[in-house]
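Dear U.,

For the methods section draft, I wanted the exact inputs and outputs in one place so we can describe them consistently. I've listed the two proteins in the order they'll appear in the manuscript figures. Please don't edit the token lines directly; just add comments below if something needs changing.

First protein:
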Amino acid sequence: MTAISRPFGITLLAVLHVLQAIVFFLGGIALIALGALLRRGFFGVHRLLGGAASLIGVVVIVLGLLYLVLAWGLWSGKGWAWIVSLILAALGIIISLILLLRGGLGTLIVLILDIIIIYYLLTPRVRTFFGESKPAQQPQRGIQSVQSTPQPTGGSKFCSNCGAPVQGNEKFCVHCGKPIP
């Protein structure tokens, strides 16, 4: 079985998650440092606020670590990373819609990006990379590919690659993932 190369969009998502993790790490370190300053009594603030800032900083660093793990999972084609990415994008859509209803037009870009990410993650090539669907089998050179599925004559459409029936206006075969002409 041949290895499926990583799609460029997945590489891009993994790199963006690494950058996001770096931002989380730096933000978490800054919050821990701020918490230490507040606990020492700088700025005339109560010590409890310093402890809360440090605790939030630790949580932010843990989130950064989780984004690094997700980036690795995407990079290496782990199925769980595909599922987690779908869930995160869906949550992003829900949060963006709520914020849009409250008047935050700035989240419109995030909403559009999350929709694009979900669409991209559900494309046949990306699903195949993560093992969520079977790769299309390519006929070997010099050997004729024999159709094992009979092709009834009628108004029905069938995939020219694997012979599976095609429903309605499908753009890709649900069986092998090949584009329907």
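Second protein (the one for the lower panel):
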Amino acid sequence: MSEPIFRIQKVCKSFGKHIVLDNIDLDIYPGEILGIIGASGAGKTTFLNTIIGFLKPDSGDVLFRLNHLLSFKSSYIYKSVFKRQQMVKKVYGFASQVPSFYKELTTKENLEYFGLLQNLDKETIKSNIETLLNLMDLEDFANLEAKHLSGGMERRLDIACALIHDPEVLILDEPTADLDPLLRSHIWDLVRRINKKGTTIILSSHHLAELEQLCDRVAIIKDGSVLGIGKPQNLKKQFTMEQKITIQTKTKKYDRIIAALQKKKINKIKKSDDALLIYTANPEKTIIKILAILKTRNEKLTFVEVTSPSLDDVFISIWKKDEEDDL
């Protein structure tokens, strides 16, 4: 694995007596898509604002990697984002939850303005605008005032403004908030295309099922701490071993099956429409038991499916356990 592009080292941040970030310690690697998930108020936005140096922590540091002209690992140099703000601004692009462009300017004029803020020359700005208008599917709206753009177009323009200087890292805070499923899908496809060009992407979102398909790694933030970080499938194994078995029988008489299974290692059983849902950490043994029960009663199995937990399931189980512990 290559050297990290960002190193977050024991970062703590409080507002008054409220601890928002509590000893955050993780590395972010070039080329990955890292998702940040957590309940509202968990510290996701504060975490992203700290990475870029907008918020200074009470303790700890965030280091970013500088590449030496010679591409030897030993040549990597790390600097604090809080001490080298002008340098780190060339490394990342940031699109917040609230659009940062100007409504009275056209799409093209906004991109020109943000290019000038990055001290790009006119030829570079022109070239980058052409590339971004194409990448964002905004060519037909280049001369339209931003106030007339739709919600999805606004989000794409905001991301384009963050990419105008071709940064190594793109940071997105809730990029699909308030968008319908079709527009969310468009934004996620766009994120994949940007990532395929080699850009490292860090993003937060409440749409966990979508992050599961998108991210290389996911970090779970809870009470200001990183509760877990890793590939989505590894996090699911770490935080919930429970799997769901869905069965249907010809007669749909499930009471006797429920009675027989309650003595086994079953976490939960419930009826749903015409099916029986069984939650267990041992799906193979449970299915064998179900088949034996059905055989003794001459019942015919018409449907069976085993479903692994999703990131949504992990999220719910973590916060539900916390609520139960507080009782």
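Candidate sentences for the figure legend, describing the second protein: The CA atoms of residues 86 and 264 lie 62 Å apart. The longest helix spans residues 181-196.

Thanks,
Y.
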